[in-house]
Amino acid sequence: MGERVMAKKGKRKMAAVATCRKGANFLDLLACRFNNRCMQYTLRNIPKAVDRALRKKAKAEGMRSRAVYKLEELVARDRLLKPGMTVVDLGAAPGGWSQWIRQELDRIDASRPGRVIALDILEMPPLAGVEFLHGDFREDEVLSSLETALDGKSVDLVLSDMAPNKSGMDSVDQPRVMYLAELAMDFADGHLRPGGAFLIKLFHGVGFDDYVRELRRRYDRVVIRKPSASRQRSPEVYALAQGKRLQMK
Ligand SMILES: C[S@@+](CC[C@H](N)C(=O)[O-])C[C@H]1O[C@@H](n2cnc3c(N)ncnc32)[C@H](O)[C@@H]1O
């Protein structure tokens, strides 16, 4: 390639990069995506830009986490929330999902607030209208305290966004993820009302297909969703199981 052409290309790239960087927000970057001149720069940076934009949005809206926009999309698409529901949120900290569910239940029908019970191994600052249980869901006493809080009443919607700390080794991390997912499924087996729904974060990998197969035995409808607020490169997806059967297949 001639020197002049290379210099010209270099200048164009610099200009495009500068345009994208100059106060670039998510929409700027998306617009740039269709602009060949900064395609490469933009493609590399879209996930970070989306992440930044969602964090900014969460902060501006007073929400505790960007994860809330994943839930918002999932719930809206399948109309999961109904007035007066009892919702259990496993792996709730820092509280974005519980906070959003609480707000939505109040918005739908403030006279029938239902219940939101949140549980996490980490402490979480209190949220009005959310009952919080602090503990490791793998421990029997923690499950017992959740059962005590339910006092024999069944749950309408079980959410699990639980994710163990990553070691970076798939052979270690994936079994941990799947173990928590098994426990959440067991909990839903025992406490979700017939017809109820179960939404759980999963990671593609060993055990994923078997897990989804097990869900299909228990629920009328099982779909795998990847919300747009979820990082595209992340292997995380959400399994949404609706219509819990009285008897598993
Ligand atoms: C992705 S975060 C949840 C974010 C939350 N949905 C929100 O909107 O703020 C995953 C959570 O799972 C929790 N977790 C991981 N292992 C757990 C366990 N064994 N018992 C309870 N919570 C657990 C973590 O402490 C972490 O807070």
How would you describe this structure to a colleague?
The protein is of the alpha/beta class and 249 residues long. The chain folds into 2 domains: 2-60, no CATH class; 68-244, Vaccinia Virus protein VP39 (Rossmann fold, 3-Layer(aba) Sandwich), CATH 3.40.50. The chain has 8 helices and 7 strands. It has helices spanning 3-21, 26-33, 39-60, 68-78, 96-108, 140-150, 170-191, 208-218, and strands at 86-90, 115-120, 130-134, 155-160, 192-203, 219-225, 236-244. It has a 7-stranded mixed sheet, sandwiched between helices. β1, α5 (96-108) and β2 form a beta-alpha-beta unit. α7 runs parallel beside α8 (208-218). It is globular and about 50 Å long. The structure holds S-adenosylmethionine. The site of S-adenosylmethionine has 23 residues, from α5 and β2.
List keywords for this structure.
249 residues, Rossmann fold, seven-stranded mixed sheet, 7 strands, 47% helix, globular
